[in-house]
Design brief:
With about 1900 residues, the chain is of the alpha+beta class. Helix content is about 35%, strand content about 15%.
């Protein structure tokens, strides 16, 4: 029985002690005056009576009632029911309030009679003071309190004739039964009717189960106010310990909401601050750091605004606000949505029927009280689902004297499949759950609804999941039970309580609330107490029983374990492998091992492994031989590597007994246990794991203590493995023991307690040993393990969490110098382990009640245990070193190049997968070639790995991965697990710029010193102090006959010594040339522009010696210089200048005067510019002495020189470094406005201007003074269609094709910065309009003449200077000048470097991607911005090609003139001149533009120690990538194959050849490199020049040759440059693991036999079939293309027949010639018809380009290279009529025909073919005769090129000729290849045809 009310208090308004306007509450009276012993009077009640503060009111308010909750120091809750009413304030009170009086009235407490008589009305300023009746109770019967206080108030107001003292006395002495009515004998015991002696009657029903909360309607109200989602988030917030604040204007609502939220949390109990109504004066409580649930009046909402981490629920507004910084984890997924849907069914039953056509008559909604129970039932089910099976994870640590229970959290999460779930994790770690375990974990106690539900209803809930109606039925059943618990006897609920009349509060009370008679109340209370003492004590008869455990756990969501579904087959493999190991069938086991290791990724396989291994342990010990031991350890490591630190699936727990059982004998008396090999796992250093293991084992032993000996023995060592069903669990045993406990004698009890305590103690000793086994490393000197571990050091901070901070300075071997720790001593390791174990022992022993004496003993023991173990380990470590090493595969020696020497012999390593999927058997599904086991070798040239895959299923494949030492870009130390033993080993990751990555883990036999030596040697080879230390120099230096090693010269040689060197070198070479070279006479000036005839081309490419007459240095040169000159003339540049007809050396020869340019020897001593070649092309009119001054204006003295000239338009391409600021200003500022300072302009600046003027004058078209040509129609410009004035115009040159796409819109390309903008003064038109060549001022006249001369005629400038935007700032281009600036934005070398780094990471990631698949690769590729840079380069190059093609010269003047300038200039030449697209031409281009013009190969490639800091910047590689992009788009225009580009890309970084070393010709001469290439080279000496190597190789194999080569004459290429048109170069991504990179041909190829015989591939010799793997074999070699295959076959057959095999090139040329003849004879089209059919989708040529038509402003955009410039008269008339805006949209896709003359002719077919009538078209523009089947045929059947026609002669009829035709109508056309026979319809038409063809020939 319990008291209904503990105290009755009367609280009234009193003045504030500090005299402020606010009052304060004062207790007038309280009963009883003495505190109860069991329940002291709670402090601070007066604050809670008026939570908003005590204030006087101007009018009487109606009485209010609410229940506040106070929590005392013992966490007991006191319910304070407060009824407040208002009385007229006494004058003293008013004075206090109105005048802020400071004096206090003493007599207010007395109450006293009222001053005013009842009859007199109150004065108008009357104020009312609040007075509160408070009832304090520990029971929550709010309704009873409301009625009781109401009765007292009614008696007072209505003046009933009842003594208030009696009523209050009765109230305080009223006793009611405790909860649990159903367990009492009669209804009377469960229901109590009370009367307070005022004719009232109240029935109090106590709930049946004490543990279930009473909610009345509060939950339903909460849902009504906030809605489902909001309540769910509040529920999750409260469970995960967040702060929750309710706001409402109603106090009653606040307490209801808080009560409702607590009811939802059942069966968990909220244990933090809980204040449903918080008084205003205590608002600072809200900033407490602990979680809380608090209610506050909405009036104080403003004060809650600055709370940053509080979730605020506004009950009146229905909102819940979660701050940004707070994350409330939601329920785990199927439960969240299921709960949501059930709640909506309960709250809104109409929802299901809302859409029905014929809704049933509306059913009665549940009453609010019933709905409340239904909502609670939903949450009760939710908890049963969440915590289902929780009892299986309880550990009984002690049974007597009190149960000690621990919860195995990790196992619970693991078995429920919710390891990752944030919500459950936080709930299990929370205080509420800890309380739940200690309260509900007890095995023998009273049970309630939740216990029933979680034990017996789980299966039903699972079955009902998908049936909403069944779920609803279950919810209703539970709701019934909850309702019955609160209202066990609904029939008796009848109250009879008087209430005051309506508006009674407005009536004048007869008097204030009277002062009560203390003595009388006290007497009544004392009477009742005395009576109670006589009565027998009411014992709460609890029915205790064993709590049912329920079914074992299942996962909350059956997640399929993805890739590793635990099929029975996998488990079978694991079992077989283990049985093979223990039967000694090692070979079988080895075959299965990889499959087992893969299977062990699955949980079931890991469990299976532990169970199988358990079977092989007898008496806790299993001695194995070395091989068995290795296998077992490998499998254990594989199991453990996927265990998290918490070991949710109990794998580490199951292995723990095994690692101390399996062992091997190393020598007599020395045994090595498995634990010394499996320490490298994070789980061993996690305290939570050890605690769970310890408690699990203690439970097993305590259970064994109480079981009969018969049941006992088989489960002692089982650890965590679950007990079979038919045996009693530890909880059952404990429950039985708790039941018996009271019946035992005192001695027996003591004995049991002692036994249990010693069991725990012995386990603690056992665990101290176990922990030392797993925490002390085998080699304690390395202490390697500890520095890796999260746990050991962290626990220095005594935290139990898994915070991984630093090692707290105790145990760390320095990982690298940065960590700052020195190597730890052994004692340190021991100290750390001792501390770890001691902390563990402290915690578990204190929790499980071990006596302090025992604990002290343990602390003494632990250091001894550790020390002893260290000594044992020392012997084991020593012996294990002596073990015969496991038979490792023998090292495969790599093949070396001639001259390549091994620096470091093989170090055993594992090559690990690097993120490229193919090698690891990724998405392609190939075999897993990696990881591979082998060795790494370091040679003078390469780093080479050779080995075999560790996966035996792959077969005997050799894996080779290598790269040149010089290509190494990054080396970093890593720590990785070896694939075989899963041991943590040191490793190295080497990344190279040839896109190879060696990610290696050193074998344990490789000492750290060997690894360090390897790194140092590698570093030394990568960065030699001097360029002479590189492989290209050291290679073959011993073979050089008679050449002594050069002495190192002083760094700055005088010109004289330099000249002497030049002469020396020149003498060596000069005498030999005449013998070997054919002569070449440069064509005359007129013919210069045309490409030479085909048969001459070879001569040009061979000819390095020039005709003596043109190039003999004139007598003006000194004799020594003359020698120098002749050697300079040898250089590639000079040969090319001759080919281009760019002038001569001599200034005295008469013919040279007519030439605009000359070859100047001014730089022959490299005095003007060290990075330029010795001979330069300059305008004829500029004297050598002026060049020195001009060069000062440019960076690095790189002044503009000509490097190429267009044969067609005679425009020249110049290159230079960027301008120095001063020169720019002098040159361009204020050109027109004569300013006083002009005369003093800087002389070099004027020289520069003169120089540019000379360049302009040197161009034939611009040579006359007025020579402004009016080129029109620049296609890549976009000019807005409405331009208000020429001044404000900005023209953007964007990508060439965009003109048609965005007709009138400004370009929105990524790179719209190729733009020229300028403000023009006076009449000037800005650069843009000139560049566009569009006349904005007047339309052109109809005949194509220029418009009215009154307008300024816009022209194309003679010279465009492409410069860097930043460099040309502030420059005002002048329209009257003949040159113009095109400022563009370019990227810098450092951006190229950064971009390349990212590209390297994207293509060779280094570790597997988080999300495999192409998306992540493409994302990282995009991030690298590499393709954007390629796009910019191509775009600028196409722009320059356009300008040159239209007749303007271009000077490219970017950065220092040796990076981007070189890229652009080379690309422009490649696109414009077909010669550079041949093998010879490309070589020439690279030699001229890259080598002679001083691209800094050594600097950009970081070849020496000095360049180490600058890093690798692949400018040349980027250029090759651009060429590759063009090659892809025009596969028939290049003589070389894509492999050639890759070859150069590889070797420009490899330093195998000397070609790409050093930064300029000057440096090469200094080292004596430049001319030695032509020195004695007899004998098979290693090639020093890459070109020579290519030549040699080309003779043997067509690998560099492109069979699709079928060029079009004078073809200018215009590639698409948009990023979408670019492809990633396969050089970056492909690899050949069979032999390493295929670019060192000798290594890849072996002898040059056909591949089938060259590779004996282990298969049976008779079968020539083999498997080709994408990343293993070189596909071009394994599956050569048809032509290579046939050529090889031919060679083989010739060899078999004993004939000397013909060279492949000769064979190919013969075949091609024959094919051509055949094609001609057949009339089957162009010479390239052999290949046209095979590349239908490749463009012959692309792009838009300029065309000069008869109409000045016609822009012709075409996709075809055959667009002619002429057009018929009609088309020109139409063009004239067209508006300028449509000019851009002429987009012709069909081949545009230019028919100069056409008609029908008979043509004789090839040999034995008949005559046929064809429709012939003579095209003078294209210079060809085309024929079609008939007149309307659009497809050309054949073409006769008029360039090949030698003669047109009368013919004679031959067999099969048309009979009716006159003989004179026959004529023949003779070409270089064959004779064509024609026949016209009559003689005149024949004559006309002959004349037309003749005139066409003479025009040409």
């Amino acid at each position: 029985m319990a008291r209904l009310a503990d105290y009755f208090v009367l609280v009234a308004f009193g003045p504030h002690p500090r005299g402020s306007g606010e009052g304060q509450g004062q207790i007038l009276q309280r009963f009883p005056e003495k505190d109860w012993e069991d329940n002291p009077f709670p402090q601070g009640i007066e604050l809670f009576c008026q939570p908003s503060g005590w204030q006087l009111c101007p009018e009487r308010n109606p009485p209010t009632f609410f229940v506040a909750v106070l929590t005392d120091i013992n966490s007991e809750r006191h319910y304070c029911a407060c009824l407040t009413f208002w009385e007229p304030a006494e004058p003293t009170q008013e004075a206090v309030c109105t005048e802020d009086a400071t004096e206090r009235e003493e007599d207010v407490d007395e109450g006293g009679p009222a001053q005013l008589s009842p009859a007199t009305p109150g004065p108008p300023g009357q104020l009312f003071a609040p007075k509160t009746l408070v009832l304090v109770s520990r029971l929550d019967h709010a309704e009873v309190f409301r009625n009781s206080l109401g009765l007292i108030y009614t008696i007072h107001v209505e003046g009933l004739n009842v003594g208030l003292e009696n009523v209050i006395g009765n109230l305080l002495t009223c006793v009611i039964p405790l909860a649990g009515g159903s367990q009492l004998d009669s209804v009377e015991d469960g229901v109590r009717t009370i009367s307070l002696g005022a004719g009232d009657r109240q029935v109090i029903q106590t709930p049946l189960a004490d543990s279930l909360p009473v909610s009345r309607c509060s939950v339903a109200l909460l849902f009504r106010q906030l809605g489902i989602t909001n309540v769910l988030s509040l529920f999750c917030a409260a469970l995960t310990e967040h702060k929750v604040l309710f706001l409402s204007r109603s106090y009653q609502r606040l307490s209801d909401a808080c009560r409702g939220l607590l009811a939802l949390l059942f069966p968990l109990r909220y244990s933090f601050t809980y204040v449903p109504i918080l008084p205003a004066q205590l608002l600072e409580v809200l900033s407490t750091p602990t979680p809380f649930i608090i209610g506050v009046n909405a009036a104080f909402q403003a004060e809650t605004q600055e709370l940053l981490d509080v979730i605020i629920a506004d009950l009146d507004g229905g909102t819940v606000t979660v701050p940004e910084c707070v994350h409330v984890p939601p329920l785990p997924e199927p439960l969240q949505s299921q709960t949501h849907s059930v709640l909506s069914m309960v709250l809104d039953p109409e929802l299901e029927l809302a859409d029905l056509a014929f809704p049933p008559p509306s059913t009665n909604a549940s009453s609010l009280k019933m709905q409340d129970k239904e909502l609670r039932a939903v949450f009760l089910r939710l908890f049963a689902q969440l915590l289902q099976g929780y009892r299986w994870c309880l550990h009984m640590v002690r049974i007597h004297p009190e149960p000690v229970i621990r919860f195995h959290k990790a196992a619970f999460l693991g078995q429920r499949g919710l390891v990752e779930d944030d919500f459950l994790m936080k709930v299990l770690e929370g205080m509420a759950f800890a309380g739940f375990v200690s309260e509900r974990g007890v095995p023998y106690r009273a049970t309630d609804l939740f216990d029933e539900l979680v034990a017996h209803e789980v299966a039903r809930m699972r079955a009902d999941e998908n049936h909403p109606q069944r779920v609803l039925r279950h919810v209703r059943e539970l709701a019934e039970q909850l309702y019955k618990n609160e209202n066990p006897y609904p029939a008796v609920a009848m109250h009879k309580v008087q209430r005051p009349g309506e508006a009674s509060h407005l009536r004048r009370a007869p008097r204030p609330f009277p002062r009560l008679d203390d003595g009388m109340v006290q007497w009544i209370v004392d009477q009742a107490t005395a009576k109670m003492q006589g009565a027998p004590p009411a014992v709460k008869a609890e029915r205790r029983n064993t709590v049912p455990s329920g079914p074992p756990m299942t996962a909350i969501l059956e997640r399929s374990s993805g890739l590793h579904g635990n099929s029975a087959r996998r488990l079978e493999v694991v079992r077989n492998c283990i049985s093979y190991v223990f039967e000694g069938k090692m070979l079988e086991a080895k075959k299965l091992l990889p499959a087992v290791l893969r299977a062990l990724k699955g949980r079931a396989a890991r469990r299976c492994l532990t169970q199988e291994l358990h079977l092989h342990v007898q008496q806790n010990r299993a001695v194995l031989d070395h091989q068995q031991f290795d296998f077992v350890v490998r499998m254990m490591n594989c199991c453990l590597q996927d265990c998290t630190s918490l070991d949710e699936h109990g794998i580490a727990a199951a292995l723990l007994p095994l690692v101390t059982a399996f062992c091997r004998k190393l020598s007599p008396g020395v045994t090595q246990f498995a634990y010394s090999c499996v320490q490298e796992h994070v789980v061993w250093s996690t305290p939570q794991f050890w605690e769970a293991m310890f408690y699990g084992d203690v439970q097993t032993h305590i259970r064994a203590l109480y079981l009969e000996p018969a049941e006992d023995r088989d489960h002692v060592q089982v650890g965590d493995v679950s007990v079979p069903e038919d045996e009693r669990s530890a909880l059952d045993v404990a429950s039985e023991q708790r039941r018996l406990w009271p019946t035992l004698s005192r001695e027996k009890q003591q004995e049991l307690v002692q036994k249990e305590e010693s069991t725990v103690f012995s386990q603690a000793i056992h665990y101290a040993n176990r922990m030392s086994y797993l925490l002390l490393p085998l080699d304690s000197s390395r202490s390697r393990l500890l520095r890796e571990r999260a746990g050991l050091g962290d626990l220095e901070s005594a935290s139990n969490s898994l915070v991984t901070n630093s090692m707290a300075g105790s145990v760390a071997e320095s990982y690298d110098t940065e960590s700052g720790f020195e190597d730890a001593e052994t004692c340190d390791v021991a100290g750390a382990v001792v501390r770890f174990i001691n902390r563990f022992v402290d915690k578990v022993c204190t929790e499980s009640g071990v006596t302090s004496d025992h604990l002290k003993g343990l602390h003494v023991m632990v250091p001894d245990i550790v020390q002893m173990h260290i000594e044992t380990l020392e012997a084991v470590h020593r012996e294990s070193k002596r073990l015969p090493p496991i038979q490792k595969p023998k090292l495969l020696r790599p093949r070396l190049l001639p001259g390549e020497e091994c620096v470091l012999d093989g170090l055993r390593v594992y090559l690990l997968p690097d993120g490229r999927e193919e090698g690891a058997g990724g998405s392609g599904g190939g075999p897993a070639l990696l990881p591979a086991e082998g060795a790494v070798f370091l040679t003078t040239y390469r780093v080479i790995f050779t080995g075999m895959p560790t996966d035996p299923l792959v077969g005997e494949q050799v894996v080779v991965r290598s790269f040149p030492v010089a290509a190494l870009t990054k080396e970093k130390r890593i720590s990785v697990q070896t694939p075989v033993d899963q041991l943590l080993q040191d490793g190295l990751q080497l990344r190279s710029c040839t896109f190879q990555l060696l990610k290696m883990a050193f074998d344990e036999e490789v000492g750290s010193d060997s690894a360090e030596l390897f790194r140092k040697q590698l570093h030394k080879l990568r960065y030699p102090p001097d360029i002479r230390g590189t492989f290209a120099f050291s290679l073959g230096s011993t073979h050089t006959p008679g050449r002594p090693p050069r002495a190192t010269k002083d760094k700055g040689p005088s010109l004289k010594t330099l000249s002497r060197n030049l002469v020396k070198n020149a003498k060596k070479t000069i005498g030999r040339q005449y013998v070997t070279r054919k002569k070449y006479s440069p064509p005359s000036w007129e013919h210069r522009g045309q490409p030479p005839p085909e048969d001459q081309e070879d001569e040009i490419s061979v000819s390095e010696e020039l005709e003596p007459s043109t190039l003999t240095p004139s007598s003006a040169l000194k004799p020594s210089d003359r020698m120098t000159m002749s050697s300079l003339v040898e250089r590639a540049c000079c040969r090319d200048y001759q080919r281009l007809g760019l002038g001569t050396l001599s200034s005295s020869l008469s013919r040279a005067k007519s030439e605009p340019f000359r070859i100047s020897p001014v730089n022959r001593m490299y005095a003007i510019c060290r990075s330029y070649p010795g001979l330069l092309i300059v305008p004829q009119s500029v004297q050598d002495n002026a060049l020195q001054r001009v060069s000062r204006c440019y960076r690095q003295n790189r002044f503009p020189v000509v490097c190429w000239r267009s044969g067609r338009s005679k425009a020249v391409l110049l290159r230079s470094g960027g301008l120095h600021g001063k020169g720019v200003v002098g040159l361009f500022k204020a050109q027109n406005a004569p300013s006083p300072g002009q005369s003093q302009a800087d002389s070099s600046s004027l020289e520069q201007e003169k120089y540019l003027q000379a360049v302009v004058s040197s161009m034939p078209r611009f040579a006359d003074a007025s020579g402004r040509n009016t080129l029109s129609g620049f296609s890549s410009a976009h000019v807005g269609s409405h331009v208000p004035s020429p001044r404000a115009r900005v023209t953007t040159l964007s990508n060439p094709m965009a003109a048609s796409a965005s007709r009138r819109t400004a370009p929105r390309g990524k790179w719209s910065s190729v733009r020229a903008s300028g403000r023009s003064g006076g009449l000037g038109v800005d650069v843009g309009s000139r560049l566009a060549g569009r006349d904005m001022l007047s339309p052109p006249q109809a005949n194509g003449a220029p418009p009215d001369p009154g307008f300024l005629q816009p022209q194309r400038a003679a010279l465009y200077i492409i410069g860097d935007k930043a460099q040309l700032k502030g420059v005002r281009p002048d329209p009257l000048q003949q040159w113009e600036l095109v400022p563009i934005e370019v990227f810098e070398a450092r951006q190229v470097k950064a971009s390349f780094k990212k590209l390297l990471k994207a293509c060779v990631p280094g570790c597997p991607a988080a999300e495999p698949g192409p998306a992540s690769f493409l994302r990282s590729l995009e991030d690298s911005e590499w393709l954007i840079q390629i796009h910019k380069l191509l775009q600028v190059s196409v722009l320059v090609v356009e300008l040159l093609d239209s007749g303007s010269s271009v000077l490219v003047s970017l950065e220092d003139g040796w990076d981007i300038t070189t890229q652009v200039v080379s690309l422009v030449q490649l696109l414009s001149d077909p010669f550079y697209r041949t093998l010879e031409g490309f070589r020439l281009l690279v030699e001229k533009e890259w080598l002679s013009f001083g691209h800094r190969f050594s600097h950009r490639g970081a070849h020496t120690l000095a360049g180490q800091s600058s890093g690798f910047t692949p400018v040349f590689l980027q250029f090759l990538d651009c060429v590759h992009q063009v090659h892809l788009q025009f596969p028939m225009e290049f003589e070389f194959s894509p492999f050639y580009l890759k070859f150069l890309g590889y070797h420009h970084a490899s330093r195998r050849f000397r070609t790409f070393l050093l930064d300029s010709d000057y440096e090469r001469i200094e080292l004596g490199l430049l001319y030695e290439e032509k020195g004695e080279r007899r004998g098979q000496q290693a090639c020093r020049s890459v070109w020579e190597y290519v030549d040699r190789l080309s003779k043997r194999t067509p690998v560099f040759y492109n069979y699709m080569y079928a060029p079009e004459d004078a073809e200018v290429l215009r590639p698409y440059s948009n990023v979408s048109n670019l492809k990633v170069w396969d050089f970056y991504t492909e690899e050949t693991l069979a032999e390493g990179p295929p670019y060192d041909w000798e290594l890849a190829q072996g002898p040059p036999e056909p591949p089938e015989e060259e590779r004996p591939d282990g298969g049976a010799p008779q079968s020539r079939r083999r498997v080709v793997w994408p990343c293993y074999d070189s596909r071009p070699r394994a599956q050569p293309d048809a032509i290579s295959r046939l050529l090889e076959e031919l060679q083989r057959l010739e060899t078999e027949l004993g004939r000397p095999p013909e060279r492949w090139k000769d064979t190919w040329d013969r075949v091609k010639a024959a094919q051509r003849l055949e094609a001609r004879a057949d009339g089957r089209g162009t010479p390239s018809s052999l290949l046209v059919s095979s590349v239908p989708h490749h463009r012959r040529s692309l792009g838009v380009y300029l065309q000069e038509g008869p109409v000045g402003s016609t822009l012709s955009l075409s996709l075809d290279s055959d667009q002619s410039s002429g057009s018929t008269a009609s088309s020109s008339r139409q063009a004239a009529r067209r508006s300028t805006s449509t000019l851009y949209s002429q987009f012709q896709t069909a081949e545009s025909e230019n028919r100069s003359y056409e008609g029908t002719l008979y043509k004789k077919g090839a040999f034995m073919k008949p005559w046929k009538a064809r429709w012939f078209v003579l095209d003078k523009t294209k210079h060809q005769l085309r024929y079609y089947d008939h007149r309307v045929d659009t497809e050309c059947k054949g073409v006769i090129d008029l360039a090949e026609v030698e003669a047109v002669a009368p013919g004679t009829p031959t067999m099969g000729a048309p009979k009716t035709v006159d003989e004179k109508a026959f004529f023949d056309v003779k070409t270089t290849r064959r004779v064509y026979n024609f026949c016209a319809q009559d003689v005149p038409s024949a004559q006309q045809w002959v004349d037309q063809i003749q005139s066409c020939l003479s025009d040409a």
